[in-house]
Automatic annotation (TrEMBL):
InterPro entries: FTHF_cligase-like_sf, LUD_dom, NagB/RpiA_transferase-like
PANTHER family, alphabetized: LACTATE UTILIZATION PROTEIN C (PTHR43682)
Native source species: Nocardiopsis ansamitocini
SUPFAM superfamilies: NagB/RpiA/CoA transferase-like
Domain LUD, first and last residues per copy: 63-218
The protein, known as: LUD domain-containing protein
A Pfam match: LUD_dom
Length: 220
């Protein structure tokens, strides 16, 4: 038994040395730092894969996620919001306290400003209207960080319908661009289409952990 263990150890040591020798050979031309074990590797990662018209790409991605999308001039946001709420038959919405009043000025719906509303109260409204921190064109993702016109996270998760206004200058190309602009200390919510999941048989179920319907107005 002792010989068998010794033989196995010898084989293992030999394999280890062969692997390490290949690693040393592969790193032979790599510049080193001050310490022998520190290897300086220059990384030229591609930060973005997007090109061309970002808003068009964002619209395509959002549509793929089954979101309803509208591109309108900035001056027509109020009308676009009013029409969206009317088509859905919305009567009461919750809004962040600092949502621009002009966004809902053309609508007759009752806008309830969120002042720490209970979950049951949020669940009782027909939807929510918010702004966003930014939107990622490549992934069709809208990011909220509880900043201006966004409110706390709960108001964009509990109501079954979310209407989000995205300004054209808030659209970035890719996730690295978004991460560079966002504050990691803030409560970030990344939204890629309506809330949806699938069970083991791939049956799609929407509205499980967020709004069942996402509608986006892009103001250009």
């Amino acid at each position: 038994m002792g010989r068998a263990r010794t033989g196995a150890a010898a084989v293992s040591d030999g394999a280890r040395e062969r692997i390490l020798a290949k690693v040393r050979a592969a790193l032979a031309d790599v510049p080193r730092g001050e310490e022998p074990e520190d290897v300086v590797v220059t990384r030229g990662y591609v930060r973005a894969h997007t090109g061309g018209e970002l808003i068009g790409l964002l619209v395509d991605r959002l549509t793929d996620y089954r979101a309803v999308v509208h591109r309108v001039p900035a001056a027509e946001v109020a009308e676009a919001v009013a029409q969206a709420l009317k088509r859905r038959g919305v009567r009461r919405i919750v809004v962040p306290p600092d949502l621009p009043t002009r966004w809902t000025a053309a609508s007759s719906v009752v806008a309830v400003a969120d002042e720490a509303l209970a979950v049951a109260e949020l669940d009782g409204v027909d939807g929510v209207v918010t702004g966003c921190a930014l939107a990622v064109a490549e992934t069709g993702t809208i990011v909220l960080d509880a900043g201006v016109a966004q409110g706390r996270r709960a108001i964009s998760l509990v109501p079954d319908y979310h209407l989000c206004v995205v300004r054209a200058d808030q659209v970035v190309g890719d996730v690295p661009d978004a991460v560079a602009l966002l504050d990691p200390g803030r409560p970030l919510t990344w939204i890629s289409g309506p809330s949806a999941t699938s069970d083991i048989e791939l049956d799609r179920v929407e509205g499980v952990h967020g709004p069942r319907t996402l509608e986006v107005v892009i103001a250009e």
